[in-house]
Batch of 2 targets.
Target 1
Amino acid sequence: MTTTNLILIGVAVVAIFGAMGAFAIAFRRTSRDTRPDWESQVEPDARRADQSLRGVRVEPPVVAEPEPEAAAVTTAEPEPEPETPAEPEREPVGVTVVEVQRVVEVSPEEAGITRRQFFNRALGATFGLWGAGLGLGFLAYFWPRVSGGFGADINAGNVNDIIGELRDADGNVVPLFIPEARAYIVPAPARLSEQFEGRQVEAAGLMALYQRCVHLGCRVPWCATSQGFECPCHGSKYNEIGEYFAGPAPRNLDRFVVEVTDSNDFIIHTGTIVETPRAPAPSVEYPRGPSCI
Ligand code: FES
């Protein structure tokens, strides 16, 4: 299993779990009433007082009727009373206003969701959807394109036409670059080193090298004078069939599985990248002239 496949599987798993988490958070239902039990935290005296108020109705104010004055029994003028300081007027007594407090238990379904629950779920759903979108974006980026382009099988053209373009008049190699495949087609030597045996990287005397440097991914250009690939980023060098020669690159240039069809077309399977270790004994001489870097 290649590194790309592992990444695809990992991203798919993350995306699926992200989507599941989002839906679980957004649509979860509480199986029990999670409201805080305030009554258990109230002081016993306060609770008794509260109980005493339950069921009491609001009584209208009671106003005491004034006592009827006694009939006068004499016509004698009353003696003037001694003057006393006037007392302040008092509020009428006997008025009681009591609020009726009733605690009505309702089910979670009747109560609906609280504002806090709503925001918690909205936040969870937002993060979940964001994660799922991110995962799907990665998946879309890495997913091999089956309808053409890099990641699919690329038809580079007729084998004879390709071979005719791979050398100049002096017999020097001129790799054919295939942009859709991001690959250089180069002539394979008559005898390949054993690291390529059984890897299906040669067909009709041709190989397809991935343009990407195996050190840190720069595009590696061809150097006509040295007859090799030389990376301008950190100086890795490879011979004409991409075997490691110098620099920080850890292995040979990667290459693709190739085949020739019945109609003699050269097919590059860009969805299958073949990695090979540094060649212990290069198959092709390098350099054959001045370096480009
Ligand atoms: S990326 Fe090519 S040598 Fe570093």
Target 2
Amino acid sequence: MISWRKHYKRGLIAIGLLLTTSASIYAQGDAKNGEKLFKANCTACHALDKQLVGPALGGVVDRLKTEQNLDTEWLNKWIKDNKSLRESGDKYANEVYEKFNKVEMTAFPNLTDQDVTDILEYTTNPPAPEPAADVATAVDTNSAAALEASNRDSSNSKIILISLLAIGGLLLWLLLKLRQLVKLQQSEELQGINASRAVSFADLYKKYHYVGKGLVVFLGIFAAYGLWNSLMWIGVYKGYKPEQPIYFSHKIHSGENKIDCQLCHSSAKYGKVSEIPSMNVCMNCHRTIAEYNGKYMEPGKDKAFYDGEIQKIYAATGWDTEKQQYTGKTQPVEWTRIHNMPDFVYFNHAQHVVAGEQAIISSYNKKNPEAKIDVVCKACHGQIDTMNVVQMANDFTMGWCIDCHRTTEIDMDNGYNKEYFKNLHDKLKKQYGSGTKVTVAAIGGLECGKCHY
Ligand code: HEC
Ligand code: HEC
Ligand code: HEC
Ligand code: HEC
Ligand code: HEC
Ligand code: HEC
């Protein structure tokens, strides 16, 4: 009886403790929500465990408390509007800004106090990472898609291989037959029966002529197939995957470290071309990331290899890692261009990345419910964040552009289109009813002049 009571008491105490701790967690903030907000707003420049563009943020609350005697009030101000805080003359705000070479952090005036509390809770107590099994299956579906694509490619080459083997076999057979004949002709003992052999040669031809004729027909078909194939694929480089002067892995940068595409390809939203970042952009991070310490290793590569590749950035920018300064001796890095439309084609990134963003993402996700995308770039460039070496993920032919323009409903609610196409939309609605779908084709996306100079 007594021991039961003891347990009962202990139980009560345990429950009480549990309640108080969970209550205090609740008061501190919701790490799950914080994680979401952090991933959406901060991962372009911050990670928990290492410095990216900005400092590592794991345990930042405690760090600033002990090192600078700053509280969450300060952090709240900094995160919402670091510029005003700096301009107000705050000592540490200016110090850290100087320390990071005056790289300006984005202001987040639209985050609420609760949001900031949640984010800080996440940086203090990040939830345990998802079980490894989930990660593995996520990777598997990606590689399954890739596998399927490569299977399709390899089944094509299988057909060609089998055909070639068949032809080779036939030729070998003919060769053996001919050798037999020649041998017969040459052999002295058989001179006597030459006459009868001539007859047997004619017999032989009678017997086997269809093989030769069949062969001619077969070769004809094969040549036609080859010609058709090469004509169909002129200017198509899907799968083109050149070697680059620095082994820059998108999987490591955008996949493992979640760096936003537009941090590097920042011109995509402003205009026609989405530029390859200059070496200065690399140095924003690699001034401090001189070694590779990531968990992920591509099979066949090791830390020494990655470290060597990072050294190439220093060679190119003339950065002296000992003295931590630039020597002034630079050498340009010559990236091989992968995507390249002919000069008579007009393609504009901003039109697709900004105006068309929502339309393209939602239409893509409707068509590919099993492989949804979150970043507009992937609709055209594929799962770049899983590629160690970039390869062309689509045909990039005229048919490919047109196909998407025919099937993508534009977003009538974005600011630009709402203004621009209001009349058109109203007219179409009157004509065909309110459920009318307006595709890119409907706004002129199939007109030759839109894509050709
Ligand atoms: C565009 C890049 C960028 C984004 C996005 C960004 N930051 Fe920063 N952050 C920086 C830089 C750079 C610094 C270093 C100070 C400076 O240069 O202004 C910094 C500094 C900080 C600091 C001070 C840390 C310290 O050790 O002193 C905190 C806290 C912080 N950021 C939080 C956040 C949070 C939270 C978010 C997301 C809501 C965020 N940042 C988004 C670039 C960014
Ligand atoms: C840290 C910088 C960085 C980030 C982040 C980044 N890229 Fe890149 N990207 C590069 C560099 C450098 C190259 C040139 C070398 C190469 O082809 O790998 C490149 C090349 C490319 C190319 C091929 C360009 C050509 O020559 O035609 C495409 C397409 C591309 N990136 C898309 C993306 C997408 C989509 C994302 C986001 C998922 C992304 N990039 C994120 C730096 C970056
Ligand atoms: C926003 C920060 C950031 C920028 C910008 C950046 N990197 Fe990195 N880079 C990283 C991180 C993080 C790692 C992985 C380090 C680790 O896990 O230890 C990395 C690793 C690497 C590696 C080794 C792994 C690999 O990809 O082969 C190379 C090489 C590299 N970067 C080259 C570049 C080049 C070239 C540029 C400019 C075009 C660039 N980086 C721009 C953050 C950045
Ligand atoms: C609607 C399809 C589409 C979308 C969406 C798209 N691209 Fe492209 N991208 C292209 C085409 C087409 C080219 C070839 C352009 C050329 O050669 O003129 C290209 C070329 C590039 C290049 C090589 C440099 C250049 O501009 O020629 C990079 C880098 C690139 N894209 C990155 C991105 C990034 C990053 C995003 C997302 C922010 C993105 N792209 C979104 C179709 C797209
Ligand atoms: C993944 C789908 C997709 C692909 C692929 C695509 N586009 Fe588009 N394109 C769009 C969308 C969506 C818009 C409409 C954007 C808007 O809302 O204004 C658009 C608009 C345009 C426009 C403006 C049309 C107009 O009437 O204002 C041009 C020009 C254009 N695209 C050229 C191209 C070219 C060239 C290619 C191929 C190299 C291409 N696009 C590939 C989705 C795509
Ligand atoms: C949505 C954009 C788009 C529209 C609209 C468009 N084209 Fe094209 N066109 C392209 C692209 C992209 C290429 C380059 C394809 C390549 O390099 O494989 C191309 C190539 C061509 C070529 C070169 C032959 C070839 O296949 O490479 C001709 C000719 C052509 N277009 C004619 C036209 C005509 C005529 C129209 C109007 C009926 C038209 N195009 C409308 C995007 C477009």
